[in-house]
Amino acid sequence: MILDRRLLRNLDFVLITAVLVMCGIGLIFVYSATHGGVGHGEPEDPFAYFKRQLAAFLVGVACIVVILTIDYNLVRRAHPFLYWGNIAILVLVLLAGRRVSGAERWLKIGPVVLQPSELAKIVVILTLSNYLADADMNSRRDLVIALLHVGLPTGLVLLQNDLGTAIVFVGITMGILFVAGMRPKDLLAIVAIGALASPIVFFFGLKDYQRARIFTFINPYADPTGTGYNVIQSTIAIGSGGFFGKGLFRSTQVRLNFLPAHHTDFIFSVIGEELGFLGGVAVLAIYAVILWRCLQAASGAKDTFGQLVAAGVASMILVHVLINIGMTMSLMPVTGIPLPFLSYGGSSLMANLVAIGLVLNINMRRQKILF
């Protein structure tokens, strides 16, 4: 389907600009965090990680272009394929996935390594929105079905020891349910059930290293050279940046390899050290613009499905930002989820760009074409 030029009038260029700026910042800091090597290795090519991230960005942009040419409502026809295909891939990860940092969440297809749980977030947003668009939010039956709908992929992700993605699924679900009109008493009931179940999950549903992360959150200095090391080094990096930062490419925590995962989970720490408080606030301001435009797309959508998808994308980005930045400042437990558009990782970047493509599509088709 060729994109009608008249639809271009409704393209959200504010959102496009904010996302491109954020991706540009991400590319700069991926290079800053990796051109001297990650860990204790020196890469033959200092641009190796930058090139991979740039390639993922270009693929993501191509996906946005394709998405814009298709009416987003056509996705509803494919929802059974999307949902069960997603389940099949998550099962495949359990059977043949690669284990990294205690989690089994990677699939290698030839030279390409993918993280299916990142794309699973988009599928959950689309399929849950499709169901709730026609559901009766006053019906307990419909609410239970919606929770079971998300519960299956969430359970499979938990079996991969990927607690961070499971938490994101919960955030997406609550955001979409809220916008769909879930009754306050049902919301309180879900929160109460979650609170009552949390001790059971903590003692019987988490691995030892996951429980250790929670104890580390309470007191990282209880094990400063072990489980608390990452958080301590992260807070040192952010704090040492001061108000204006040490300057681009001058992060000592990165150069001296004190800060682990500085190109992935803790890239905000690098930003804080090199650009200081001002740089961190600027990044948060850009995220605020992205979230604002996603919510604007939701409020102006021409149908319930579009409204819920845009709200789901906003919920996904918000949960990622809160958890990732929170853990870098020791305000939340370390859960190992990336910072949207900034952290190194092709699967994450492409999934987030696909999500933005959906929001742009919804906003672009918010009204009938006027002749």
What does this structure look like?
This protein is mainly alpha-helical. It has 13 helices and three strands. Strand 2 (103-109) and strand 3 (112-114) form a beta hairpin. 66% of the residues lie in helices and 4% in strands. A three-stranded antiparallel beta sheet has the order 1-2-3, covered by helices on one side. The chain has one domain (5-37, 47-364). Helix 3 (79-96) packs antiparallel against helix 4 (116-133) and helix 4 packs parallel to helix 13. The protein starts with 12 loop residues before the first helix and ends in a 7-residue tail after the last helix. The model has no long low-confidence stretch (mean pLDDT 86). The chain is globular.
Give a quick precis of the structure.
The chain is mainly alpha-helical and 371 residues long. It has helices at residues 13-34, 48-68, 79-96, 116-133, 140-159, 163-180, 184-205, 208-218, 229-240, 252-255, 267-300, 304-328, 346-364; strands at residues 98-100, 103-109, 112-114.
Task: Compile the SSE list and pairings.
Elements: H1 13-34, H2 48-68, H3 79-96, E1 98-100, E2 103-109, E3 112-114, H4 116-133, H5 140-159, H6 163-180, H7 184-205, H8 208-218, H9 229-240, H10 252-255, H11 267-300, H12 304-328, H13 346-364
Antiparallel strand pairs: 1-2, 2-3
Helix pairs in contact: 1-2, 1-11, 2-13, 3-4, 3-5, 4-5, 4-6, 4-12, 4-13, 5-6, 6-12, 9-11, 11-12, 11-13, 12-13
